[in-house]
Amino acid sequence: MPGPLWEGTRDLHHACEEHPVGAAMASGKPPMQWYADWLSALYTIHWTVDQHIPEIIRRSEQVQKDLTDTNCPVNIIRTANDYVNRLNTEKDIVGSAYVLTGAHLMGGEVMRRRLVGYPTSHLEWSDRKAAIVELTKFREREDVIVEARNCFQALLNIMNEIKAA
Asked: Is the pTM of this model over 0.70?
């Protein structure tokens, strides 16, 4: 599967966008509990990944603030815990950081404007240009396609769990 990272993950990226939970997020009108559950899963992942990535792209504090601001019950998303328990290598962390940082920076810029009335501080950046520099470093890696795919698959599993709740 060597080649550009985005190309090697395109199918799963699109699957996430087309999933009913992903589509609800993209619409800017997800049920608040789905949004809170999504933030809970993101917090679980970021709490693990953020320890290993540059500070400018860490998001756990912002995700936690947003989760609190939903005023919804905090549900533990089992599939998010399952995923972080498999993040054992530098490549696992980079694959996850690529997917999450790309989502928060690129799609997140659009999402932030659509999610009117939802807490979105995890989609806001003190220095977006510096964050993009860090994302570019991940994008240049051709050796983490499997790990990035694992992250996208985990996100699909998380969405399935949220939808089934």
From this structure: yes
